[in-house]
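Problem 12. The chain below contains 457 residues. Write out its predicted structure in token notation.
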Amino acid sequence: MRPLPAVLGLALALAHAGAAAAAQTAPAPQATATEPPATDGADSVKLDAAALFHFAEASEAEGDLASAEAAYRALAEDPDPEYRTEARFRLARLLADQLARPEEAVVQLRRILAEKPGASAVRLALARIETQLGHRGAAARELRAAEAAGLPPDVERMVRFFSSALLAVKPAGGSLELAASADSNINRATRSDTLGTVLGDFVLGSDARARAGWGFSAQAQGFVRTGIDRNANLLAEASLAAELHPHAGQFEDVVLALRLGPEYTSGADRITFSAGPVWRWFGRTPYSRALSFAAIWQHPLGKRAQLRANLGVLLIDNLRNDLQDGTTVSLGVSLDRQLGANGGAGLQLTAIRTDADDRGYGDRTVNTGAYGFRTFGKLTGVVSLGYSHLEGDARLLLYPRRRVDDRTSLIASLTWRRSTLARLAPFIRLRAEQNRSTVELYDYRRTAAELGLTASF
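Solution.
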């Protein structure tokens, strides 16, 4: 079998050749021998767009790539939308294939898509360059968007195959997110000064009440995939999530997880099994350790949607309170769908059951969520809504009522996609969260603003 990048390049070249209508780019105007360039002096020459295209082509053919680049950049700002679209497309090809500057090529292609989101051939070219850069997730998204915009049947079949294969064959990858935040309630605590108990009202200390502050967060994931046979791989994964507060270390929260297991492909479906340890630190000291088991099934629904189901089991050893030792079982399902060339949406539903040594710490939880995203030129906007309902198994002796929570959340973000800043994309994110609880200690409100950088590898 040929390596995927080479085969993908062949498929995308075929798509470009066979989808001229989908490209929505105009062929370069041809200059003729009867059209000499206009001059206004011995040392200056005025070229119209057609002549400048001819000059750029000739320069490229002669190996004068600097002159060709300069000409295409001048044409990329032409007031005629067809001229500048064609110039940006040719400039991107030159940058990626001959000048070894693929990141700049990505910027030029996205400039075209900002004006012509339905340009399928441009998206296919962008997917090819993203693959060269190792951004297979981004390449897969562009292929899905091209499908949604419409492709010839033969090209569509090939693109669908490579779209499903991209992530399955990637040998290694990961993602990173770093952010600084300002938070109205870094400890997710009540604003009340007292706590109602069966013994009367207790006065709460400052650490048990809502505290505003600033801090940093980090999210990192990575994986390595090794082939076992034609339809199976061994997948090793690691993830780290951290919330750090330099001036309030007692509220810092860090989780590290390692997972290892086989990954199987069957047709367009992918099934993954994994197991591994999980460690959590809270307040800069060990809080819990656990052993996790998971199974994930991914199944495409047509050319625009994907279904994902997951089962997880967590065996928890709480290092601070043995009464919270227990088992958590979760079952979730999600549906993601592409909506046109520049947007998409998704739904999630998860049921969670926790059994603890003390029934007061056991609970049943249902989480629901929905999200939508839309690209606007270089910007991608995402809005997500969440609702969670929790019911405790029994009343803890100290509290007058069994715990019942209803939590709602709203998150909105804007990401500047494909920044040239070392492949990092800046983002801003706003959060609003409220939890209503029958136990006053867990009743809180929270708003936060984050500014950070994200990247995929």
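Discussion. Residues 51 and 430 are 50 Å apart (CA to CA). Students who got a different answer should revisit the alignment rule from Section 12.3.
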